[in-house]
Design goal:
178 residues, mainly alpha, two-stranded antiparallel ribbon, 56% helix
Length: 178
């Protein structure tokens, strides 16, 4: 299988998204990866096109096989939107998406810092200072991986306002420090 350059993959992704924005019909993307979703509404068409374009991007921190699994889990759970299709879909990832992502699925760094600090994880930007392309996603992913153990061990997710969300028992069992 020939490797695609990042520039070529981004150009292809831009063309897919441009076609989706202009077209009133269902968007069909051509990738070597299986199409998982029959698209129902316009917003989901755009999300689906963007996710498929991201799956095809080379040199991503997240392997394409995981991206496909994430998308399939979101569909199986009936979750819509880009954030649901780009995460593992467990209880914590859904809570964190609600707490730290904007309506356009962009990271609100201040909100992430506040949730982390409420759970005893401080100075996340100093701890993980990499600001290369994709840094917001890596920051959220890394912070959530550390929070996963903290929340599982405590049995709850602390919010910045002092409220605590009880973590499901199965989440705690699977993610607790051993």
């Amino acid at each position: 299988m020939a490797r695609t350059s990042k520039k070529a993959a981004l150009a292809a992704a831009a063309l897919v998204l441009e076609a989706a924005a202009k077209s009133a019909v269902e968007v069909k993307t051509e990738t070597a990866l299986p199409r998982i979703l029959e698209v129902v509404d316009r917003e989901e068409q755009l999300v689906d096109a963007e996710i498929e374009a991201q799956i095809a991007l080379p040199h991503s921190v997240v392997k394409p096989s995981y991206k496909i699994k994430y998308k399939a889990r979101a569909i199986a759970a009936g979750l819509k939107g880009k954030a649901a299709k780009r995460s593992c879909g467990d209880w914590l990832s859904r809570q964190m998406a609600d707490l730290v992502l904007t309506s356009k699925a962009k990271l609100n760094v201040e909100a992430l810092e506040a949730v982390c600090e409420a759970n005893g994880l401080t100075d996340i930007q100093e701890r993980w200072p990499n600001r290369n392309t994709g840094w917001e996603g890596r920051l959220r992913m890394t912070a959530c991986l550390v929070l996963r153990k903290i929340v599982a061990d405590n049995g709850y997710l602390s919010l910045p306002d002092g409220e605590q969300l009880e973590a499901p028992e199965d989440f705690c069992r699977l993610n607790a420090t051993r």
